Amino acid sequence: MAVAFESTSVGLVVRLTSAVVDPQSWQRFVYTYGPQFVRWCRDHGLQEADALDVTQEVLLRLSRQLTKLQYDPNRSFRGWLHSVMLGAWSDWVASRRRTSQTLQGDLALQKLGELEQGHDLIARLEARYDLELYELAVARVKRRVNPMTWETFERLAFAEHSAAQVARDLGVTEGGALAARARIQRLLREEVQRLERSHWHPT
Fold first, then answer.
1. d(CA 138, CA 66)
2. Number of domains in the chain
3. Where in the sequence is the domain holding 190, given as residue range(s)?
4. Among 17, 76, 145, 151, which one is most buried in terms of CB atoms within 10 A?
């Protein structure tokens, strides 16, 4: 069964880096980023079972590293994510080399062990972070505006209806429709910036 979470926050980072990791916070993190890791492994040539094994190993190493970290409130969630995931990934690559599970014997694993691939993984995780940040901003802005304004924005921005069509369907002027779209776009930008600054601190 899927787990529903409204947002991630600075509180999540604090709980993950505490002496005892909160199970719900860890579940939140794995639920959000685990599937991206599995997909990345598959895209680089691993079969499903191997992709799941690699993901489980790296997440296990990540869980062990978390309690050793000190939360720095001056760092962004993006910076924290980059550091902990790249650290866990590098640790996994080094462990395979130490235990004679050489990356040279498997072309897919060898490719995964290349440094640039690790950075590709981080880029994907950050893209997932950006998407969730935007989705949270959308949910918050939508609650703050009237349904007509939001429908106008959706039709113009997502459905790509013309201003004339939206005006005709909703009984507004074309200028009013365009103004509504501009207002929602501004509110979304402001909300994303607010969330980024606060590390998604829930309100």
1. 31
2. 2
3. 145-203
4. 17
Q: Are 76 and 9 in contact (CB under 8 A)?
A: no
Question: pLDDT tens digits, residue range 144-169?
Answer: 999 999 999 999 999 989 999 999 99
Indicate the pTM of the whole model: 0.63
Residue 143: per-residue pLDDT: 95
Instruction: Please state, as a whole number, how many other Cβ atoms lie within 10 Å of the Cβ of residue 64.
Output: 12
Contact (CB, 8 A) for 49 and 39: no
Q: Under a CB-based contact definition with an 8 Å cutoff, are residues 172 and 193 in contact?
A: no
Assess whether 20 and 100 both reside in one domain: yes
Contact criterion met (CB below 8 Å) for 45 and 111: yes
CA dist 201 to 72, 119, 153, 194, 195, Å?
Answer: 15, 27, 26, 9, 7
- Which has the closest alpha carbon to 92: 57, 45, 49? 57
Instruction: Dump strand ranges (E) for the chain.
Output: none
The torsion region of residue 37 among left (phi > 0), alpha (psi -120 to 50) and beta comes to alpha
Rounded to 10 degrees, the C-alpha dihedral 174/176/178/181 comes to -140
The reply to whether 115 and 59 lie within a common domain is yes
Indicate if 44 and 86 belong to the same structural domain: yes
